[in-house]
Amino acid sequence: MSRQLVRIMRPDDANIAGNVHGGTILKMIEEAGAIISTRHCNSQAGEPCVAALARVERTDFLSPMCIGEVANVSAEITYTSRHSVEVQVNVMSENILTGAKKVTNKATLWYVPLSLKNVNKVVEVPPIQYARKEQEEEGKKRYEEQKLDRLETKQRNGDVIFPVINPEPHTVGYSQSSLIHLVGPSDCTLLGFVHGGVTMKLMDEVAGIVAARHCKTNIVTASVDAINFHEKIKKGSVITISGRMTFTSNKSMEIEVFVDADPFVDESRGRYRAVSAFFTYVSLSKEGKPLPVPQLLIAVRACFLGFAFGCGLLLSAGRSAWRHFGWYMCSLSLFHYSEYLVTAINNPRSLSLDSFLLNHSFEYNLAALSSWVEFTLEKLLFPELKQITWLSTVGLLMVIFGDCLRKAAMLTAGSNFNHIVQNEKSDTHTLVTSGVYGWFRHPSYVGWFYWSIGTQVLLCNPICVVGYALASWRFFRERIEEEEITLIHFFGEEYLEYKRKVPSGLPFIKGVKVEL
């Protein structure tokens, strides 16, 4: 059984580059699939039904379609299970002036027939006849694979895109975008639920906005990975289509897009994840030639830290004095990467490149450079000084203790933790006194203090051990006083009582003095 749609492409089908919008093509593909699958499911006497889109396999955009060309969309049912229909769709464009034809898209779609009487009831699909036994076996294999992939995708669907304050260019937060759409009657099927093609077109629009924001050039859809329709979207719902950059190569961008639905007409149900997919875009010049894609800065820094960690492991495997420097490189890389990771988990709204703390301050970078210089010079002049394994082991334990304490403090504080001292209290700010905050008032600073000194003990750097201890102590004394003024302003007597009971955790630092 096959079905063909023929339609001329008009100016309102175009994107800003003048080619047919990728979302328009996806919508035509879905229309052809819906028609043929609905017709097949009603081909035998039984309960009337409408085929609902459940999944779209990877769809490749092989070549652009131009305005004025005729789109020939052919659909064919290639497999049926008891409750599913597989439809394969080919899209061909035809220049009616020259007669030239070319294949532009290929896609595989899966539909589920829903009863017209009870939308929650899935009716049985009439079987099709196969030319060969192998066709049925191959179709069954594809069916099992997509069913497993849908289950895995649904289990990991829980991400939410948060707005980022002052995002930097070429970061995830800078290009992430959302579109809000009220589902109207023209968007829906006979059952009153959104057409899959309507949703896919909106998703393609959001993905295109993300790609354009990132590279600031003309962009086109290259492919769409599997689109999974997890839940039906009812007429009258408000849907939020969100997209964010997840990966960049030299010539392409991968963008995650998901659709969340708010069923305002059904107050008994809250917001839910309805659809998810990954789109791939390419950047083009005005002449239509591929352009290099700017790399995600976060990926560059994470890659750098991973490379440094790997080098540290290689040095650690050796038996020379550089073995201890390998421990140091691993500790340093892990510290900075975990700063970003924990911030992403706890407080994604404040996430930025600065969350790596790689560019913490000029003084911080100067201190790191000084420790490398001291280690190198002393290794050349006093090599035996760098081979005190027991001392380096003590330093490594200090590093592990300090980093674990700091990350425990960040996780305990949750969204209350921020790398920048806050001057205004928000509605979500609470005074955290449990966990490691029951031991010290400032456990994150205590952890960083002993971590920084531990790195120099690990390197057996006598000068930097003293220098780091003095510089860190002075920095945290001033930081704690500044922070506690804000905390007293935020929480008043509650914080003063906490301050009287719990020490700061740092030697000879009592915090801001309050005269009653």
UniProtKB/TrEMBL annotation:
A Pfam family per the record: 4HBT
GO cellular component: cytosol; endoplasmic reticulum membrane
Membrane topology recorded in Swiss-Prot or TrEMBL: Multi-pass membrane protein
Active site (catalytic residues): 15, 204
CDD domains: BFIT_BACH
Subcellular location, record wording: Cytoplasm; Endoplasmic reticulum membrane
Reaction catalysed by this enzyme: [protein]-C-terminal S-[(2E,6E)-farnesyl]-L-cysteine + S-adenosyl-L-methionine = [protein]-C-terminal S-[(2E,6E)-farnesyl]-L-cysteine methyl ester + S-adenosyl-L-homocysteine
Segments traversing the membrane: 448-471
Single GO molecular function: carboxylic ester hydrolase activity
Enzyme nomenclature, EC number: 2.1.1.100
Keywords, sorted A to Z: Cytoplasm, Endoplasmic reticulum, Hydrolase, Lipid metabolism, Membrane, Methyltransferase, Repeat, S-adenosyl-L-methionine, Serine esterase, Transferase, Transmembrane, Transmembrane helix
GO process annotations (BP): acyl-CoA metabolic process; fatty acid catabolic process; methylation
Catalytic EC class: transferase
Domain HotDog ACOT-type per the UniProt entry, residue ranges: 1-117, 173-287
Stated family: Belongs to the class VI-like SAM-binding methyltransferase superfamily. Isoprenylcysteine carboxyl methyltransferase family.
Function, as annotated: Catalyzes the post-translational methylation of isoprenylated C-terminal cysteine residues.
Protein name as it appears in the record: Protein-S-isoprenylcysteine O-methyltransferase
Organism expressing this protein natively: Limosa lapponica baueri
